[in-house]
Amino acid sequence: MGIIKDGTVSGSLPNAQVFAVHYPGYPSSMSRAIQTLGGVQEIQTVRNLHSNRLELHFRPEDPYSHPAFGDFRPCNNLLLRISKSKSTNGKTSVVSDNVGLQGGNILDNKTQTGESKIRSAASNEEAQVQAPETENISADIVARVPEAYHFDGMADYQHVVAVHADVARTKKRKWIEAGATEKGDLLGVDEEDVMTIVPPLFALKDIPENLVLKPSVVLSPKKNQEEVAQPECDIPKRINWEDYIPQDSTPWESQMAVSNLFDERPIWIKRALNERLLDKGFNFVHSMLRRLLSRVAYYFSSGPFLRFWIRRGYDPRKDPESRIYQRVDFRVHPSIRSYCDANTANQAKQRWEDICAFRAFPFKCQTSLQLFELEDDYIQQEIRKPPSQTTCTYASGWFSQAVLDSLRHRITVRFLPIYPKSGFGVGVDRLLKAATESFEKSKRRRNKDNVMLHEEEHHQVDAENNDVDVMHGEDVEESNNVEELFGSFPSNEGGEDKVQDRDISDEEYQILEQDSEDNLSDEYDS
């Protein structure tokens, strides 16, 4: 027996090992605790398979009782036997607090273990500590506890029948033991209640988890009425690259050549910019050109200025004069794409200046063009007209969709006559005729829309003047009627601005400061 002094015990560590069960309750007896755990045989089976969980049925007599599960965990504890001796008139009586043993396995009601300072001393020698006056406390290390079962989870939902557990178990046994082929088995339920089928488990998990729910994307009607605040995304600001590049060096000259081009105009298409640099004697590889551009420019990954390099600090969405630098696409009709497929390897031989002047047919099935560079009187006249819109929209920029469609038809009409007809299919004349008709229709449609818009504005001004005269000449009752008439007119205050603000939200215009190998492709190099 070890001696307890100042909260420590001395003794030798035994070789015997047991396991502990942190029982989540206060059983009436040790036998009842073993019964709720499935019996000695079930406990031994679980012990042989450490991957299994120890099941605890609080009502083992009830066949519908759902278990609580104990998880196996390693630990480093000791099992102590504490005894107390009392001395009265020279006589000593020992009161021992024993822990029950069952087949070498320890099942305690409430395991209490702690860090013990083990000192090398006499082996298993009984020692007593004389308490004040007549009380002595001694301890003995019974075994090591390297493993334990913890019931940290919640018990499953329980289905409790309205009869006693023994009666319910008897009824269930009768149903199981009854022969399936016996006559009247399925209908003879006079003396039995209908068997209740209960799932093995109601809850799939016994330990709750924190869930981060995704917010609903559908806004309530009240929130829809409120203006949704869009985060402002500033465009990249100009950086002073002159501070870290030595003057009169090769990098300085290269960077200065690129920077001077953006002083000429704020927006460039990459192919035109590269051709201008070649004319000046600068031949950069793809990675070097991308590095030089990223210091002085940025680009949008969507919108009317898609993949166009824009000078840092300049926002084309706020400057109506940027409309002349917008993007327009030319797509070759599928029936004549054989010419493009046959000349895929010759794309580098074409000069961008010849394509913009409509002297060479593009080798690509889709070519991105800049309105400013196209040498066509009609196109240059249209893009320099006063803008009909006050905001830059995501779909068509500073132009209306009708104007953009008319410009696309005009580009098609200019490219088809220079298509090399020999050896690359037929039907170019038919396509040119159809494109010309579409172009003329788009112009007539635009003129008609402009006339109707002008008439509506004129009638609206006249109506407002007449209403003002009526207000001054009639009495209060007629004045109220005119106010009701004004209230029936549609108002453009707020509504139009909201729609346009939604079109030019920074969330749709993804601003990218630097080029990327993954994002760039030959499709957008033009």
UniProtKB/TrEMBL annotation:
- Which Pfam families does this chain map to? Tau95, Tau95_N
Acidic residues compositional bias, start-end:
504-526
Q: Name one GO molecular function term.
A: RNA polymerase III type 1 promoter sequence-specific DNA binding
Q: Which UniProt keywords apply?
A: DNA-binding, Nucleus, Transcription
Can the keyword Iron be found in this entry's annotation? no
Q: Give a yes or no for keyword Nucleus in this entry.
A: yes
State its location(s). Answer: Nucleus
Q: Which InterPro entries match?
A: TF_IIIC_su-5_HTH, TF_IIIC_Tfc1/Sfc1, Tfc1/Sfc1_N, TFIIIC_tauA_Sfc1
| Coiled-coil residues | none
Any one of the GO CC terms: nucleus
Task: Specify the protein name.
Answer: General transcription factor 3C polypeptide 5
What is the organism field in this record? Cannabis sativa (Hemp)
